[in-house]
Amino acid sequence: MINSLEFADFLNDKFSFFAGVPDSLLKSLNNALELKSKNNFFVTANEGQAIAFASAYNLSTSKIALVYMQNSGLGNAINPLLSLADPKVYKIPLIMFIGLRGGKDDEPQHLKQGEVTKKILQACGIKSFFLSQNIKKAKEQIDKAIQECNLKKQIIAFLIKKNTFDNFKTIREKNNFKIIREEAISLIQDYFNHSKFIATTGMIARECYELRKIKKQTHANDFLVVGSMGYASSLAFIISKYSKKHIVCLDGDGAFIMHMGSILNFKNSNFLHIVLNNQAHDSVGGQFTHAKNASFSKLSKACGYNYSFSVKTMKDLKNKLEIIKKLNGLIFLEIKVKQQTRKDLLRPKDILMLKEEFCKEL
Questions:
Q1: I need a surface site. Which of 92, 125, 157, 281 has the fewest CB within 10 A?
Q2: Same-domain status, 70 and 191
Q3: Is the full-model pTM beyond 0.70?
């Protein structure tokens, strides 16, 4: 196992520029890199933007950047990898750290991605290696890759297995919001008990799932978007057009930001789009999402939503839910929530059965 802080020092000397989307397998290393690199450590909206950032850094400085991501985000990165950085286009060298989810005991949404990650990279002409869990060998791998990238102007990817880095935590200033996300979701379920819910990937879907079990309710009203980060609202939009039921989308700030341009399609539709905003990638390390740089309620209103609300207390949430129940059209509700998650949350397993239940009486 690699000492995260020592390896971060080494990487900071070699690269000085890091961009990507947080991943649970890279959490400790990212914490250490963020501490060491500060102004040169970027959390991007999506993986494609990270490739663009790394390419721009190389164009500006002739230096190589390191891009980090989970293998589930590789699809977002492929377009700029092949049409911008590829040796047949602009020959922009860069190195990628890709968290390799998809082991035999992993979650269903990671299994296929884990099977094909190395094949996808191979099809793209990108050399890939498993990063050694021995720090001396890992440093040697990085040195060799940098030399090859500089010489051949190519892209090299390192696949990071589970437990490659030791545990390293950093202290970040958390938001001062009061609402606990799980309590907000529970309240929303109660207010819209006849609606169909589309719940985004990560803790929000898991909390939605667990709350149904606690309340001894069926899962038939919930579609858990266990993967496909950033697409829950697009699913909700189309489902709202073909379903007889009222549709509620439970989104997160990181997922909302990842494909924010999607909301321009939603004008003149009829569903409730709720963003539970804790300003952080809470489930993969707590890195900030840059949500504090914008007003989501003003943004949604400018993009064609009929009504837009933002709340930060449970009292205000209850008042707004009473108002929203009487409204029709495209409605946006931002709920500012604490960075707080129970550690014993269940993970849904039989997702095909859950899908079949959801599709009944849709």
A1: 125
A2: no
A3: yes
